Amino acid sequence: MPRPLWTGAISFGLVTIPIKVVSATENHSLSFHQYHLEDMGRVRTRKVCELDGEVLSQDEIGKGYEVAKDRTVPVTDEELDRMPLPTAKAIEIVAFVDAGSVDPVRISDSYYLAVDGQVAAKPYTLLRKALERSDKVAVAKFAWHNRERLGLLRVRDDALVLHAMRWPDEIRSPESLAPRDVELEEGEIERAVQLTDSMALDGISGFKDRYREALEELIAAKSEGKELPEPREGEEEPGKVMDLMAALNASVEAARESRGEEGEGGHATVHEMKSGTRERAAKKTAKSAKSASAAKKPAKKTAARKRTAS
Predict the structure, then answer these.
(1) pLDDT tens for residues 116-172?
(2) Are the C-beta atoms of 256 and 298 separated by less than 8 Å?
(3) Whole-angstrom Cα distance, residue 196 to residue 207?
(4) Which residue among 143, 162, 191, 205 has its CA within the 20 to 30 Å range from the CA of 303?
(5) Residues 187-229: pLDDT tens digits?
């Protein structure tokens, strides 16, 4: 089990469940160091006092809040721990709601809640069973990193998961971002729905971090003195505007083709569109766009002849 990040208890009505909080995720990103280009020396960040220029160690650094210019109030960890806050050492459940009523944009980091001692096993299981049977999630408050937070408790397999959440006033409104007064034809909407059906999946567990894999290949090639990997070809040119319906038609057909399906009427499931499929899709899109453009020209000539005849 990973090292606990926090210990406390879940407050569930009159029930108390001692728990340990452990991270539910791992970070597999590759991190870089900064270095001096001339001699490859490491460039490090140091904490320096701006008054005397001394480099400080962590035990010489404290917290403080600037209440006015040139006036800072120091605050110690002991003072923070003694704050009269009921959630200081407890995850206090305050409500139960339907899972679908929670806006996903409010969900932040995730943590597993592990039992802390045998005495916690029964109430822990009781809360888990109650959440499973009611098909609800628990809304809770807890204090962590010098602030009170809002959390969401739910069940994952046989464990309780705590999702840290943002407060309502921390979510920006998207009102000014959405486009307005856009006209769409019904056929375009129906074709877009067909595309979502063609790309439907039962789950997202099969996706991989392709950027990280490519970065590992780059680092390995440089460290071994080999030639650098060639960039992958066949990617569609970004920002290129095409006929919307032609692009939808080509996308649906490409999705079906990548799953080994032909023609109309099939339901395809797409895990990943290969480079060759992207190239074929781009060619189909361009061809469909030209066909659509050519089909419009005779219509204009016909209309002109009608006006002349009248």
Answers:
(1) 988 899 999 999 999 999 989 999 998 877 678 899 999 999 999 999 999 888 888
(2) no
(3) 17
(4) 191
(5) 888 888 888 888 887 877 788 878 788 888 888 888 888 888 7
